[in-house]
Predict the structure.
Amino acid sequence: MSMQIGVGFLGAGTVGSVLVRRLIYESDAIAAKTGLDLVVRGIAVRDRAKDRGIVIPPGLLTDRPSEVVDDPTVQIVIEVMGGLDPAGDLVLRALESGKAVVTANKELMASRGRELLAAAETAGVSLLFEAAVGGGIPIIRPLSESLAGERITSVLGIVNGTTNYILTRMVEEGVAYEDVLAEAQELGYAEADPTADVGGGDAASKAAILASLAFGTWVGGSRVTREGIEGLGTEDFESARRLGYTPKLLAIAEDSSEGIAVRVHPTLVPLDHPLASVRGATNAVFVSGPSIGELLFTGPGAGGEPTATAVLGDVITSARERLAGTQVKSRIRFASGRLRDPSGVSIKWLLRMTVMDRPGVLAQIAAVFGRHEVSIKSVWQDGRGDEATLLLVTHESPEGDLHLAADELAGLEVVSAVDSIMRVYDDEP
Amino acid sequence: MSMQIGVGFLGAGTVGSVLVRRLIYESDAIAAKTGLDLVVRGIAVRDRAKDRGIVIPPGLLTDRPSEVVDDPTVQIVIEVMGGLDPAGDLVLRALESGKAVVTANKELMASRGRELLAAAETAGVSLLFEAAVGGGIPIIRPLSESLAGERITSVLGIVNGTTNYILTRMVEEGVAYEDVLAEAQELGYAEADPTADVGGGDAASKAAILASLAFGTWVGGSRVTREGIEGLGTEDFESARRLGYTPKLLAIAEDSSEGIAVRVHPTLVPLDHPLASVRGATNAVFVSGPSIGELLFTGPGAGGEPTATAVLGDVITSARERLAGTQVKSRIRFASGRLRDPSGVSIKWLLRMTVMDRPGVLAQIAAVFGRHEVSIKSVWQDGRGDEATLLLVTHESPEGDLHLAADELAGLEVVSAVDSIMRVYDDEP
């Protein structure tokens, strides 16, 4: 009775193969719940011979993506190949030929999202990308639809599961960064080339997408400043824990009268903050606005199964629109907004220094901070003699001022070294 | 350049007046973000003279709802009057005349939702109700769209802000139920007639809606078993805290091979469970399924501003669909599913008893539980002589067995009284 909707795949890796399995072997359950008859018409992969852990009916696999993109029986293209090229041009071609596209590709959306969304609008088709951020957590749809009437002021959270897994193990077991990374690679939790994750690039792409939707202003991935977790050592975390903090790689997007700032960096959060207890590959995103106050979305941030569920939700939405005889245009609209340099945003800082325990040391250090207009929130000193450790938390100040102060501190005779500088995020005044 | 979309209100109370204010006085911001020109055409209220804290342009207010429902320039009707009657028939009439409807009315959706959704589908228009559950938290849309491809197994959470506020204050300050309720009523946090909140009816309506969407099976509000918080005393909470639990009014909807069970009741949760730290009027909902694992949505569960944001999101979605020339039908589809009696669902129990501290007491008590196939997880005794307090936590067992055991316990010579019986929800085996 129901009309068939043809679906084509670009890619069949971790997410794609789960989704192929569900669409081919669990189509009855999907039909029962949604009334939709989704039929897989083709699956474009690089290597047709590769074992994907599922039996794919003969004739569906092809190594020519154009066979999927140009197939007139395909109404919805699912792009799960990743990367910018050739994914970008294939998505564009699919949209231009009137196919709806569902993608899980954060890098592509952060890089060419504006162009692709415009192409979708011109062609009168949908481009949906719930799976691009937060894995199985519904966050794109709530931001772009449920909260479309809210003036969102900030989006903040943990959006990269690999780094959160690494940081969790470093903190809880005291294992060194290199060892955890090697183990994570062995277990398949981290890529052979982990740069995108540990360098903050993956989180930056996601932050760009979230910021663009939240603020209605296009923020390209390249506009997001980022610092990764590569330089972090467990000794930094021990100091942080003494003061009641734990490290997280946070994506922070803020819209204020001074403009929009989007950044990704390791950040210390208070141990009693909800983000502190987000462990392993779990993601968590806070969305704030004057009317809604604060919303929190938590769930599995990666993995084939949860991400496939997010893609499938978009496919079902697309299919329902297709059956209704149209695609809803203007789902997302970007006004012009000012982007600001995130290094000008004020935040608290924790500095760990090795100092000489002599009368007047603290006064000298305080004077340096005072000269650079950085005010001190708390100080904690451990040890005596020439190798005392000084932990110091500042009030909120911009990165520039802090680094000028730190440079001058390093030059003081009583300061042997500024061992580490970390940002601190808390809600306290 | 953009086409006007006419909006009409049924009701202008707490939520409605906030939304009227935003649509009339903040329409530029909405247009900038969404490209939509939403125009308020009429506002039907019971008392036109009532002060609503906003200046409403003359001519918009009417005390005849039909003027809104039958206005040909109104494309979207916003129902925020609440209650079943006349709201239900007005919504139905609006749908049948081809208007999209956005409602915040949980009671109506839990009672007549299936009929109204069918009417919307027949008429080819949308009926959206994000604000009916969870106030400002996007939960309806994620369940019905983002998670449409997931076989959801349970939805569980805190969905009534008033009772959570009362329980939080009782636990944290040791204030008696009656006193907190009276104060909450004075502050406007509780209604003059608090029955729907404290009796669990409001939470039951929300649980019915969540269950229907999550499981794709219609669960009417009357099918939800409920217990309220009226009978609870602070002394129960002190016993619970000793064992590491805190009380919450939980809505629990589960789909298993035995059928769907939906219930609302006071429940003890472990102090380190995320729900334990959900305070005041905040709502929190867990959604679980085999692929997504566990998702958590947290945010403001009530209040004019957050709820108005949820309604506005639906209005914007409706308007976008309208501009696209259609309304997406078949958004929600209900298959037949078996409902089961929630009293058959097994759960842990905490019993507080006054017992005589004599040799062999525990053996007698344990024998009673054994006879009713209720196994004991832990026991804690305080005091000596004839007035000792015994706290006992069982393993999971059905309500029927537990109550048979409790009745027999109360008849034992060594048991002076079974003082309280509370359900315990935790994930431990």
Remarks:
- Residues 304-323 of chain A form the longest helix (20 residues).
- Chain A touches chain B through 60 residues (CB under 8 Å).
- The longest strand of chain A covers residues 245-256.
